[in-house]
Amino acid sequence: MRRETVFAIAFLVAAIGAAADVWGYDWFGYYASFARDVQLDRQTFHLRDGDQRVPLSAILEVDRATRAYVVCGCQQGDLLTVMRRFFDADEISHLDDVRRLFGAVRLTASVSGAIALLAALGMTRRRIRGGLLVDAAGVVVLGAIAAVAFEPLFLAFHELFFPQGNFLFDPTRENLTLVYPEEYWLGVTLRLGATVVAVCLLVGGLLTLPIRSNAAVRVNKEIVT
Q1: What secondary structure, in 3-state letters, does 63-77 show?
Q2: Packing angle between helix 125-148 and helix 3-24, nearest 10 degrees?
Q3: Is residue 217 over pLDDT 70?
Q4: Model pLDDT, residue 219
Q5: pLDDT over threshold 60, residue 141
Q6: What global pTM score does this model have?
Q7: What does the pLDDT read at residue 224?
């Protein structure tokens, strides 16, 4: 495999992993904004004490607990207590699988980042920029496809990474798809893709900046004087 191809693939995997962390931790508060916009507090949830609406603060609390459990790997009893108010054993089992996937993504992204760096050491800046542009273009194409055919892509993703099949939930009995509806995942997916594209363009843009050594600067000064 050519060095350029290795670099492009490794950089893309590393960028996706980094973007997954950004949106997994929800650094920009997207979930809270989404929950308010679609008025999740008007949704009827299936709780142990009966079907009922819950305040937005309770929905955001379960999101924080779930995010800490899945993304950060925290497993304190109080987090599970909050989650079990909304999620049954099957839903938490799926969240366990998602937590393991996040760990695998982080490890793969770290290794890929190191590979991309090593591959870049033997490449010209022009070829590096070319690989970054290919990555960005590929993500844009996938984003366009996701925008018009998200449901089959979302299902294919789950079938690939969760072959055990415990990812289908009945919204009339279970809350996971109510707390995190498909519209939320579409928004996250498009934002994740935009983040990857932005990283590719940013790094590519930085590589267009001229690099001048201290020796060259001294020579220029001597010529001027």
Answers
A1: HHHHHHHHCCCCCCH
A2: 50
A3: no
A4: 44
A5: yes
A6: 0.88
A7: 47
